[in-house]
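Intended use. Records like the one below are meant for learning the mapping from a protein sequence to its folded structure. Do not use them to infer anything beyond what is encoded.
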Amino acid sequence: MADSNEDGGSMPTDYEIAQSADADHILDVVEPYGLTNDDLELYGDDKAKVSFDTIERLREEETADGNVILVTGMTPTPLGEGKTVTTVGLGQALNRLDKEALVAIREPSLGPVFGVKGGAAGGGHSQVLPMEDINLHFTGDLHALTSAHNLISTMLDNHIKQGNELDVSVNMVNWPRAIDMNDRALRETVIALGGDVTGVPREDGFILTAASELMAVLCLADGIEDLKERVARIIVAYDEEGEPVTVDDIDATGAVAILLKDALKPNVVQTIEGTPAFVHGGPFANIAHGTNSLIADEVAANLSEYLVTEAGFGSDLGAEKFMNIVSRFGDVEPDAVTIVASVRALKYHGQDMWPPDVDALEAEDLDALEAGFPNLDKHVRNLQQFGVPVVVAVNRFPQDTDAEVDAVIEHCADELDVPAAESTVFGEGGEGGIELAEHLIDAAESDSDFRPLYELDAPIAEKIETVATEIYGADGVEFSSSAEDDLERMAELGFDEVPICMSKTFHSLSDDASKKGVPEDWTLEINEIYPSAGAGFLVVLTADVLTLPGLPSEPAAANMELDADGSISGLF
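Structure written out for the chain above:
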């Protein structure tokens, strides 16, 4: 990846690169894959949704599913390691090799866009278009989810106000409100102040829309009927006897489904090189399952030879949940996995100091690089447990030296016995991912024996301990007294044969964000277990994970501007 143009000037911003690209009409982009105007609902010239009729037609045709390539990563740094840019660039590279490839990624949340993390549309010459629309309002899916979530809150509080026929305990309401913005002041609130006319006062709060159970429901539903069934069984509160109160109990299922009807349809756009890209859904991987929608993956796999889809954060979160949750609900078992690593992330995990010296990552440091190898090794071993071939993508940044990149590739070959390739898709587009794509073609077409890590009928505690010890590297698990009660209660409520979704920091393999590399001699502490009944899994809280982040001291929003001609500056 280069950081300058041939004339010596600075490399243009992602936005400038996107604006200079010649995008095709979306119908021309998808036509080679068998989609026509009748299959799409157009949102202008460059965005569309796939109709429900088309989704059903593709299922009925029973076309051969394409090879699924899952993109994940090592434990990330605050700087980001480039999973999305690798996903997009890899799709472009496969098409350059005359493979019919599609890309599937999550929709960005406005919170990170205006905060510090940035958007989720890739970058450089491996991004999806129109990047400004995708990172902002797009087709309105996030707004629909926010409205649907808050409709449930409104219906619930209105039920309590209008006589509380269901005997809802106001101290056992577990459905907060939602907002698609990083507003820390709304994490904990008190509502209905001002007298009887405003309702029954109680403690409440907000979560980011991407953290809503509705987001997980949308991304796991396979159609309208399944969506309605999942929404109906969401638990929003408990009554005075401790029995669940659901969305269906407060008569909100139909209205919520109406708000989500269009949001359920997958969005299709294009990459900067014209590869079709499905951008749909956006659950967090540290709270929910962390991948784009199952319906988008299934449609894309039915239309292509290769589907490149992305899992959130490191393999301990997004990839583990893709294997153990998503692949159980739909036919999207991965044929190969590529794990994105970077020289700077390896040095970050290899530094013998806390907090890590981020500025020092710019300089060549082979000792720190080699000290960071155990983190990559652990992620590779994690993925191999699922019986799927693994390829390492070394996402190269401008400051990386040849000696550092070569050391990573040699380590993968000599110590891990897995193929690795340098990736320069940010600066070179698909051309910079050719070698990586060739490795993944070989891997996807080789024999594999995919298998989830645990059986669904295993005891809940055993499933939790399996993930903790086999994926995180913990010595064992310690349940708080309340979590012990949760175990018994979840079994009583009939949630003992569903997947588990661990809520854990993404900054470390452990539950302590300050522990880098591969932490040893530690025990995973479980604080709470509760049902995400609509999504179909149990959420296991391991530590405090923020469901509504705040803005940093210098938010990205402070440097954004809208010019008189309508062009945007500061948006990446």
